[in-house]
């Protein structure tokens, strides 16, 4: 835990007592703050009270007494309309911050020189975050991994000299971290996402830009118009900017050339890493993630040899293009985190012969954007509520069956793939759908896929 000493003996309001909210409240109390915490869920309030957190209905609180208001990133700050607590904080002139902001203040107060790498972007940030942390840990460095990747940042060990922090940041967290100042800030890409919470693409992009604007080194993907403009503004402001690209060569920075990550300086380029044969970093998108990780690790003093060793031993991110089993020429891939078509595209682009398990609770737009990958699909196995709509989209372009359940889909896909004469084929769960019609979340769905794969005779599990 990171005790929040910067609010010692001061009154702090907090709303949102889920996992990260409760951890934040406990960190504030541990640092000596006087906390008044609340949640719209009475069970969460009771749990906090049982943990020794001061609770109280913030409707009735004296907001003029609070030094700060800590808001859970899951609670609307601006759109579609501010949460009622936000209106009360604004009316009283109380600053509104989140857990990442508390972390950066503690780092600034106690160990301002300890390396801090922050990662954001619409896609790829979790893989990039995990990859950077793996490189640092495998090189023997004291590494703390947290943030949006699933470990609340305030549960990490306190800032100390020589301790490295790798923190994934969502747009919601950045919006609540006005003084975020990483040693290396990474912005991978920007496509429309969470616009219900940010109002417009321009506002969403402006929030993401804040992460790199305060960084010592800004590492920015330049494959879309928004991030290219952000990189240009950072350079014009005098920041050290490392540009990365996956679709074109650069004269300065890192770019992707097939399976190679190239480093360009003054127009001359040379390969810094080759990802060929690293199953957990397949695909052009993962080469971009690797380029960002290489740039970040170099910027905080990691040697090229340590980086290359970390790349080659990267175990991958669970549920994201994760090789989980093999039987003869067939590999089984868990990509349960692909909860929409855009998220499924990278996995479909990375294999040439696919037995595709798709479906669940459908997202707007379905799978029409995946049509360029249909020639790679030997057969589709459709599950959940989306099955009829996905079948209509596939039509005569792809052979399919409506399997209904994941267990049946895995069994049928494995049997069909075993009869395939291709040099290699993949049985892939990449649903392009949410899981909530059949599973609690994508993690549970992915774990179910792994268990069904493990039950197949002759499969060698890779995890």
From TrEMBL:
ATP binds at residues 121-127. Belongs to the MurCDEF family. GO terms for biological process: cell division; cell wall organization; peptidoglycan biosynthetic process; regulation of cell shape. It comes from the Bacteria. GO terms for cellular component: cytoplasm. Its main location: cytoplasm. InterPro entries: Folylpolyglutamate_synth_CS, Mur-like_cat_sf, Mur_ligase_C_dom_sf, Mur_ligase_cen, MurD. This is UDP-N-acetylmuramoylalanine--D-glutamate ligase. It catalyses: UDP-N-acetyl-alpha-D-muramoyl-L-alanine + D-glutamate + ATP = UDP-N-acetyl-alpha-D-muramoyl-L-alanyl-D-glutamate + ADP + phosphate + H(+). Residues 119-296 form the Mur ligase central domain. It is found in: Cytoplasm. PANTHER family: UDP-N-ACETYLMURAMOYLALANINE--D-GLUTAMATE LIGASE. Its EC number is 6.3.2.9. GO terms for molecular function: ATP binding; tetrahydrofolylpolyglutamate synthase activity; UDP-N-acetylmuramoylalanine-D-glutamate ligase activity. Pathway: Cell wall biogenesis; peptidoglycan biosynthesis. Keywords: ATP-binding, Cell cycle, Cell division, Cell shape, Cell wall biogenesis/degradation, Cytoplasm, Ligase, Nucleotide-binding, Peptidoglycan synthesis.
């Amino acid at each position: 835990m990171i005790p929040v000493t910067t609010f010692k003996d001061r009154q702090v309001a907090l709303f949102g007592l889920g996992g990260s909210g409760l951890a934040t409240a406990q960190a504030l109390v541990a640092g000596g703050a006087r906390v008044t915490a609340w949640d719209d869920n009475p069970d969460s309030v009771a749990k906090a009270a049982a943990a020794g957190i001061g609770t109280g209905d913030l409707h009735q609180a004296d907001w003029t007494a609070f030094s700060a208001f800590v808001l859970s990133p899951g609670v609307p700050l601006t759109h579609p309309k501010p949460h009622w607590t936000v209106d009360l904080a604004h009316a009283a002139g109380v600053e509104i911050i989140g857990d990442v902001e508390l972390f950066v203040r503690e780092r600034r107060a106690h160990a301002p020189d300890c390396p801090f790498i922050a990662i954001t972007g619409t896609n790829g940030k979790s893989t990039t975050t995990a990859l950077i942390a793996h490189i640092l840990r495998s090189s023997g460095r004291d590494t703390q991994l947290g943030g949006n990747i699933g470990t609340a940042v305030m549960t990490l060990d306190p800032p100390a000299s020589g301790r490295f922090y790798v923190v994934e940041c969502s747009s919601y967290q950045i919006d609540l971290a006005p003084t975020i100042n990483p040693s290396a800030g990474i912005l991978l890409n920007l496509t429309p996402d969470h616009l219900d919470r940010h109002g417009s693409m321009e506002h969403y992009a402006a929030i993401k830009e804040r992460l790199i604007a305060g960084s010592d080194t800004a590492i920015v993907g330049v494959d879309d118009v928004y991030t290219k403009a952000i990189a240009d503004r950072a350079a014009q402001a005098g920041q050290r900017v490392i540009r990365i690209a996956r679709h074109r060569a650069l004269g300065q920075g890192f770019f992707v050339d097939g399976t190679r990550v190239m480093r360009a300086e003054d127009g001359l380029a040379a390969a810094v890493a080759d990802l060929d044969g690293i199953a957990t970093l397949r695909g052009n998108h993962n080469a971009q993630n690797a380029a960002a990780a290489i740039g970040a690790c170099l910027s905080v003093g990691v040697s090229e040899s340590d980086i290359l060793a970390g790349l080659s031993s990267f175990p991958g991110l669970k549920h994201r293009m994760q090789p989980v089993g093999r039987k003869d020429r067939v590999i089984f891939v868990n990509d349960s985190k692909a909860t929409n078509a855009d998220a499924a595209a990278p996995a479909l682009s990375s294999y040439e012969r696919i037995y595709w398990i798709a479906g669940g609770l459908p997202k707007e737009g379905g799978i029409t954007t995946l049509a360029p990958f249909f020639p790679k699909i030997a057969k589709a196995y459709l599950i959940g509520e989306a099955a009829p709509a996905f079948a209509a989209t596939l039509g005569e372009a792809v052979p399919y069956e409506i399997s209904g359940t994941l267990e049946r889909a895995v069994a049928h896909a494995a049997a069909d793939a075993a009869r395939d004469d291709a040099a290699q084929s993949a049985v892939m769960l990449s649903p392009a759908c949410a899981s909530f019609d059949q599973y609690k979340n994508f993690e549970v769905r992915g774990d179910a896929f792994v268990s069904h794969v493990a039950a197949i005779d002759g499969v060698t599990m890779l995890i």
